[in-house]
Design brief:
This protein is mainly alpha-helical and 250 residues long. The protein has one domain. The protein contains twelve helices and six strands. A hairpin with a 4-residue loop joins β2 and β3 (160-161). α2 (25-36) runs antiparallel to α3 (42-68).
Length: 250
């Protein structure tokens, strides 16, 4: 019979991580330094740094799990967390969109078709839910989750993310280490945890890289620093461009 960590055991392990684990901050900055020295177009430097920094976030989580002897119970096809509101800044949204443009043609076409159907189906619900400032009330996240509005990148037939390798920090850092049923049976399970504090290292390195590019060669498709400070729902960022050249002229 499979056993799972209890809530108390999870809390104890998180405390163990806090006492014994140190984030390798230098690694984040080494990534952007490496790409800054490459003889590449600015756009390619940005996309490579973005992708590798996201991978570093996942790597840090894996190391923390090893430190505390934890193993996530999240499994492919389990998509309950894909119904939470995801807030990212405009720079991250643009990087995601540009990365999708680089996907193989069949995959880009699938995402294009999916997004068209998604906004045709959920457009009014998105407008209603995102009209509320995500910082205005503690109840905003709960009401959004209760609405059962899926993420724009969730294929609801397969329960798989269509842009998994470039999924943003809120998705990447939300984990379950107890019985997976807690996500099925609770809109806001107390047992789940977030490593979203890694956003500080990820964004710090990315922002430093943008500062360097701004001074040396320009920031390509990123409007710096404005894009760093503009935050919105992921569903809104992709709705803006779901019918634009960036996602439809393939």
């Amino acid at each position: 019979m499979e056993t799972h960590l209890t809530f108390e055991e999870i809390q104890n392990k998180i405390e163990h991580i806090q006492r014994n684990y140190e984030i390798d901050e230098d690694k984040f900055y080494q990534i952007v330094e490496k790409w800054s020295d490459q003889d590449l177009e600015t756009e390619d430097k940005l996309l490579a740094s973005f992708s590798e920094l996201l991978e570093q976030v996942s790597y840090e989580i894996n190391r923390m799990e090893e430190t505390a002897e934890m193993k996530a119970t999240c499994r492919m096809g389990c998509a309950f967390c894909c119904y939470f509101p995801i807030i990212i800044n405009e720079m991250e949204a643009k990087l995601m969109k540009k990365a999708i443009e680089k996907f193989p043609t069949d995959r880009k076409l699938a995402i294009q078709s999916h997004l068209s159907a998604y906004y045709a189906t959920y457009g009014e619900k998105i407008k209603q839910l995102t009209s509320v400032d995500f910082e205005s009330s503690e109840a905003v996240k709960y009401n959004y989750r209760k609405s059962l509005l899926p993420c724009p990148m969730l294929n609801t037939e397969t329960n798989q993310c269509m842009a998994y390798e470039i999924r943003p920090i809120p998705c990447r850092t939300y984990m379950n280490y107890t019985d997976p049923k807690v996500c099925e049976e609770n809109l806001m399970p107390k047992e789940t945890i977030s490593f979203e504090f890694l956003y500080e290292q990820y964004m710090g390195a990315l922002n430093e890289f943008l500062q360097f590019l701004y001074e040396e060669e320009g920031t390509a498709f990123i409007e710096y620093p404005n894009d760093v400070y503009a935050h919105d729902y992921l569903a809104n960022w992709f709705q803006e461009d779901s019918n634009s050249a960036g996602l439809t002229e393939i």
